[in-house]
Amino acid sequence: xxxxxxxxxxxxxxxxxxxxxxPLASRAWWRVxxxxxxxxxxxxxxxxxxxxxxxxxxxxPVFVLGNGSNLLVSDAGVRGMVVLLxxxxxxxxxxxxxxxxxxxxxxxxxxxxxxxxxxxxxxxxEVFAGIPGTIGxxxxxxxxxxxxxxxxxxxxxxxxxxxxxxxxxxxxxxxMSYRTCELxxxxxxxxxxxxxxxxxxxxxxxxxxxxxxxxxxxxPLKHPSCGSTFRNPPGDYAGRLIEAAGLKGFQIGxxxxxxxxxxxxxxxxxxxxxxxxxxxxxxxxxxxxxFGVKLEREVHYAGDWSDWS
Length: 309
Known about the structure:
This protein is 28% helix and 22% strand. The protein is α+β, with helices and mostly antiparallel strands and 309 residues long. α1 runs antiparallel to α2.
């Protein structure tokens, strides 16, 4: 469904760049999914405010695309505006000479942040090691990968709410817990303040290096995946439950539960988004039937699933 003339005109008037009917499969880690009605590039806070205002005025859906690592984009694509954060919304800047606090744009990639931390001797940001997303996505789900969680480094987050209002949230106001955050629905993180801490940078570099090597050895990297498909339930591991249910290697079309790590679902080549979702939901149903545990997805379904059955 194309943008309305009113939405097109408003974006143009606000000088917000956009393209229509843009394929998304190459931007998502599973390498599946249909096109975006419009791909919008927000490079300034003013752009992002305009996008949220225009979306409210024209009743156009808005979806923020970060690094695409934890998304399953539907075969039908995504309606409305898919927003990329670029420019000043994807920068990293120390706020003082000691770099005790860092301002990071919502679109800044965590892998780059960890690499920059190593080069500059910043400690405390190793909590983002092994997470392939962006700061905005990390805050939204309090992302973590074994060396801590986003909440451990976050001081505050500035977000643009639906309608265009800008608000800054302290970390306490966000009430972050395991893979959750009380950021208001529809809010888009424009930038965040992160805290570094004292300590020997070499110790932290070695800690990250060792952690990443262990992860690499345990994960299937040959085929596209979204990383961990499910959250770990309290006191257990999703991968253990999936393996115990006999689901390693389970396959629909070209979508398969990985043999190497059961919490990974792979695109073996030519899978559709529907294939992948069927595998994900079969795993959920089977684990619940066998063990009474409802696995919660880490991956998010994005786009138009109205024809899903």
